Amino acid sequence: MEKEKISNIQLGLMMYLMIGGTSILVVPSFTAMYAKQDMWLSPIIGSVFGFLCVGLAWIMNRYYPGETIICHLNRVFGKWLGSVLGFMLLFFQIDAIGLITREYAEFIVQAFLSQTPLTVIIGSIVATSSFAVRSGVEVIGRFAMIFAPIFFLFVAAIFLFLLPEYNVLNMLPVFGMGVLPSLKGSLEPAVWFMEFLLITSFYPSVRKGDKGVKGGLFAVFLMMLTMVITNFTCLFLFGETTANLTFPFLSASRYISISDFFSHVEAIVMALWILGGFVQISMWYYSLSLNLAEWLNIKDYRPLVFPVGLLISVFSIWVAKNFQQMLHYFPTGGTGSSVIVLVLVPLLLVAVAWLRRKISS
Amino acid sequence: MNNDSESAISPRLTENLDRIKALYADSYDVVFHHLQCGEKAAAVIYLTGLTDSDQLNQFVLEPALRKMKDQEGGLGALCECLPVSSFAKAATLDQLIMEIGNGNPVLLMEDEDQALSFSLAKWEKRSITEPEAESVVRGPREGFVETLIDNVSLIRRKLKTPALKMKSMRIGRYSQTEVVIAYLNDIVDPALIKEIEARLGRIDVDGILESGNIEELIEDNPYSPFPQMQTTERPDVVAANLLEGRAAVLVEGTPIVLVMPTSIFTFLHSPEDYYQRYYIGSAIRWLRYLFSLIALIGPSFYVAVVTFHQEMIPTTLLLNMTKSREQIPFPALVEALLMEITFEALREAGVRLPKQIGSAVSIVGALVIGQAAIAAGLVSSPMVMVVAITGIASFLIPHFTLGITIRLLRFPMMLLAGTLGFFGLMMGFALILTHLFSLRSFGVPYTSFATVTHWNQLKDVSVRAPFWKMNRRPKTGFWNRYRQGSHQRPGPPDGGNKT
């Protein structure tokens, strides 16, 4: 097991970045697709899943402290079923991290480096992250400590700098179509919030005496706030046309122009985004390597880092033929698999574990 | 070396002398002086260049010959009649050889299995001068010298407490260099001292000629480009660090003292920050942080903007830049590398040359080559400006050891920026940060403030907080937390604000 320790606040900020980066990229347009002018409500509804997943992970951690979810599965469901479910989780993880990497790479290629082959970008991100992952959870924690506040501040700054451009009437009528559209729209941010379940990989590294669950809940709250801010920005600026934009928040940042001098900041936006994405990928990468090591019964995850990196690079190319296909996957297959692996299985896990404890006592 | 029984001094004088003579064969500067001490034969052995022969004659030889003429008795009686303040008894030949090597004359006597050594070493040394690499406008002007004992005394003069410990050890098979670990007993973490001793004890090399040799043999990560120990030639800096619970390693023969553990921010602080008003100290610190970032990514930022992200430049400036870059045959990356390498070469030439010629080189380099390169259409004028600013930025880093690291890292950053734009720059940045975050200096994280929320420590990193606000020591001295009384904030006398 990992011996390096992180603090509660580090855990919170790490989890924030683990979910944060990509959510800002594509969530506004997906929510706008279903929720229309009520899109700002959807993250608030969706965040319920975040709180639920953090809670479930914490309960399991209390039952079996110091262990990751793969161990939990083995303990609760027995060796065979546990291994099968563990493999399912691993497969989901590698698929998801491939998607995330691809998303970043596509974003960079489309927005900035149109001549650069996708594989070069993917390769450099994965290579850089692999060094951070090998350095351990402490290093990622320090990254999060510095970049999470910057990340949040820059989201808030974009929101503030665009104040003169807003058309507040875009948000009317509230509940114009009833509650259903915002509920439908909340399914998309909910997928991101479900990913908070992966906090299980980091609970064992939290310092003794620090209650990890606090950090996790704080992260969910901060994430919700961020999504609401980005959705508001897009709503006020673009209205319902947000749904037609690929990266609405980036497009929004292009509108920033303060006294003709402070304009065209999107390159800086990208720079910060990449650093956020770097932490995000490192987190997922770390979680996957750790879980795989547990699944294979290997004491140290470090020898697995480079092979896993290769897998990630390959998966990020396999995951979709092109960008349109990938975008199509999010609200369809992505939602289903996330619900199964990140909500239903853990719910079952906690329920069975609870029953077992009841029976044995 | 010999084992104990072989190395013991025998009661027969001639046997001892033969053995020492065999060791010092073919060394013309070793003097064997025979004398008759009363009834017994004796010999004084010393190295001519290292021993104060006047004092030896006056305080050892003359009294020994005169007073012992009619007296009986051996070394004990001799000790009592010699007017020398400091002498030691040596029982083995190894000790004897070491004393001779240090420049202390030794006296051997017939029928005695011990020898006397007198602290009469004296050699030419540099006087204490202002440290050149770390000059300050306000602050003490004295710097360390090459003589260990003078350096020790400089620290002792600043910290008069008996808690100031100076542990000595010898390192180097042939050089037998004396190395001293200095620390404040009440404040330092005892584990740190143990660790330093263990690491120094592991060293088994031919010779230690400078503290840099030691630094390279005891650091945590030998592959890191970053310095993991602070180096200084200022006694006030060493004293301040000892007071914050760190330890110092002094090495005979060099004015450079190692201080450990350290963090990257120490290299961006100057002792003067603490001597000036704290507003000024804080502002200058921020300036340094900003410019050390420019020193690292200045040219690469420019290359990335010019090559990939032209939209960031305001339009009028962009037009001017395009105009000036029109006749340049190279891409921005090549241009930048050309200029940066030339700049580094000029700097190196200026450092190695005598001072008077050095300034000439920099004038030729800065003015003539810069102007001529623009006129010849080799580089554009914005690039010259960027390189010049970067050069100045790298001189703003107060510690040379970090400055040189940042200058080196600038080159891979330029390559990344030239090939992948901001994305490459950020990846390079992430790699450097990953390394910095995992780096440790004697077990203490190199970027320690980022690990845990130590607001206390941030006080001395983000700004230079006033002294009366910094009541706690940094984390290194955590078990002796408070370094001053809690009400240090000055103000007018009581009631002064009422009248």
From TrEMBL, chain A:
<feature type="transmembrane region" description="Helical">
    <location>
        <begin position="12"/>
        <end position="34"/>
    </location>
</feature>
<keyword id="KW-0812">Transmembrane</keyword>
<dbReference type="Pfam" id="PF03845">
    <property type="entry name" value="Spore_permease"/>
</dbReference>
<keyword id="KW-0813">Transport</keyword>
<feature type="transmembrane region" description="Helical">
    <location>
        <begin position="80"/>
        <end position="101"/>
    </location>
</feature>
<keyword id="KW-0309">Germination</keyword>
<protein>
    <submittedName>
        <fullName>Germination protein</fullName>
    </submittedName>
</protein>
<feature type="transmembrane region" description="Helical">
    <location>
        <begin position="332"/>
        <end position="355"/>
    </location>
</feature>
<feature type="transmembrane region" description="Helical">
    <location>
        <begin position="190"/>
        <end position="206"/>
    </location>
</feature>
<feature type="transmembrane region" description="Helical">
    <location>
        <begin position="139"/>
        <end position="163"/>
    </location>
</feature>
<feature type="transmembrane region" description="Helical">
    <location>
        <begin position="40"/>
        <end position="59"/>
    </location>
</feature>
<feature type="transmembrane region" description="Helical">
    <location>
        <begin position="107"/>
        <end position="127"/>
    </location>
</feature>
<dbReference type="InterPro" id="IPR004761">
    <property type="entry name" value="Spore_GerAB"/>
</dbReference>
<keyword id="KW-0472">Membrane</keyword>
<feature type="transmembrane region" description="Helical">
    <location>
        <begin position="267"/>
        <end position="288"/>
    </location>
</feature>
<feature type="transmembrane region" description="Helical">
    <location>
        <begin position="300"/>
        <end position="320"/>
    </location>
</feature>
<keyword id="KW-1133">Transmembrane helix</keyword>
<comment type="similarity">
    <text>Belongs to the amino acid-polyamine-organocation (APC) superfamily. Spore germination protein (SGP) (TC 2.A.3.9) family.</text>
</comment>
<feature type="transmembrane region" description="Helical">
    <location>
        <begin position="218"/>
        <end position="238"/>
    </location>
</feature>
TrEMBL record, chain B:
<keyword id="KW-0812">Transmembrane</keyword>
<feature type="transmembrane region" description="Helical">
    <location>
        <begin position="358"/>
        <end position="379"/>
    </location>
</feature>
<dbReference type="InterPro" id="IPR004995">
    <property type="entry name" value="Spore_Ger"/>
</dbReference>
<keyword id="KW-1133">Transmembrane helix</keyword>
<protein>
    <submittedName>
        <fullName>Spore germination protein</fullName>
    </submittedName>
</protein>
<dbReference type="InterPro" id="IPR050768">
    <property type="entry name" value="UPF0353/GerABKA_families"/>
</dbReference>
<feature type="region of interest" description="Disordered">
    <location>
        <begin position="478"/>
        <end position="499"/>
    </location>
</feature>
<feature type="transmembrane region" description="Helical">
    <location>
        <begin position="413"/>
        <end position="437"/>
    </location>
</feature>
<comment type="similarity">
    <text>Belongs to the GerABKA family.</text>
</comment>
<feature type="transmembrane region" description="Helical">
    <location>
        <begin position="289"/>
        <end position="308"/>
    </location>
</feature>
<feature type="transmembrane region" description="Helical">
    <location>
        <begin position="247"/>
        <end position="268"/>
    </location>
</feature>
<dbReference type="Pfam" id="PF03323">
    <property type="entry name" value="GerA"/>
</dbReference>
<feature type="transmembrane region" description="Helical">
    <location>
        <begin position="385"/>
        <end position="406"/>
    </location>
</feature>
<keyword id="KW-0472">Membrane</keyword>
